[in-house]
Amino acid sequence: MSSPAPSVAASPASSRRPVAVGVLAAISSSHLVNDMMQSLILALYPIFKLQFNLSFTQVGMITLTYQLTASLFQPLIGLRTDKQPAPYSLPMGMTSTLCGLLLLAYAPNFSMVLVAAMLVGIGSAIFHPESSRIARLASGGRHGLSQSVFQLGGNAGTAIGPLLAAAVIAPNGQRSVAWFSGAALLGIGLLMYVSRWYQQHLVVSAAKPKVVMANTESRLPSRTVAWVIAILLVLIFSKYFYIAGLSSFYTFYLMQKFSVTVQSAQLHLFGFLAASAAGTLLGGPLGDRIGRKPVIWASILGVAPFALILPYANLEWTTVLTLIIGFVLSSAFSAILVYAQELMPHRIGAVSGMFFGFAFGMGGLGAAVLGVLADHTSILWVYKVISFLPLLGMVAAFLPNRRSS
């Protein structure tokens, strides 16, 4: 009887693989499609508010429904796929988003808008944990870079949504949202390609001897890991609660304070989101080079002075400040996510689902809470309140210094 094959200890250098450029490009492009369709909800708020006579509280409820659905399901899906990978779940998730998009185009009332938002949230919950895992698998060991490229696709899609809304939906109305179903079909095609690659990767990995990575296991005690995760979640709260207030009500803020048109406000929103997309590409590679902690610290706390000035700025300076805020703040998430993944390298799906889910949940909760606050005070007051949130970036000082793997 032969003895079992011993596990092989591998050094970081020996475990490096070439970057799967095609897969990384496909998963980033599908992220662009996914988040572009999601951002159409945000861009439709002024139309829905007028058409269905909604309060700011109801506008916030749309965001809450979509993001709370995504928030609740993402960690569960990530935990499940850690134990039992599901490569072809990705095109299924995009199909749910497509159904939500079509329902959004023909929703006759506020209740059906919420159902449509829920379908989009389910699609997002399926998409993000597995696609984040695949981005890491395709990275060739350059984890920060791969997450930044992946996030770049999502943020670019989020930025394009309002621009398309200003060019297409604003002049043509709610039903023109259905015209974007072609993009969803393209996303399904891209994800079928990614799913086939992932399936082949799983087959090849199953045939190889087990490899113990010498430097990927977290060497921190479990209590310290839990404390660090808590700090990272506080930072996610700070970032996404602030972003929820800034993005969900930005068009209303500009129209109310500066009397700009809906289309002009949408273009300003595009500028903010485009700056966020550009900044996304900075955090991951920089974290690979200098460590995650400095990037996290600078990206969140660094925007605090600009956030505090924003409510008192004129239109020109509001435009400049939001571009700076979007660029700097967006570099945080890739660094935070990779930092967390390095703490628990065998729970990539669960960690990704937890952080994406918490980010979505805080965004949805922020939109709902701040919508209620706006109804009882004003949008201008909301912007003054949320300006203090980036100061929570100070808790990054308590993160341990860790070398990038």
UniProtKB/TrEMBL annotation:
Cited Pfam families: MFS_1
PANTHER family for this protein: FOSMIDOMYCIN RESISTANCE PROTEIN
Transmembrane segments: 110-128, 149-170, 176-194, 225-253, 265-283, 295-313, 319-339, 351-374, 380-399
Name assigned to this protein: Fosmidomycin resistance protein
GO cellular component, one term: plasma membrane
Keywords per UniProt: Membrane, Transmembrane, Transmembrane helix
Major facilitator superfamily (MFS) profile domain mapped to chain residues: 23-405
Gene3D superfamilies: MFS general substrate transporter like domains
UniProt GO MF annotations: transmembrane transporter activity
Statement: the UniProt record of this protein carries the keyword Transcription: no
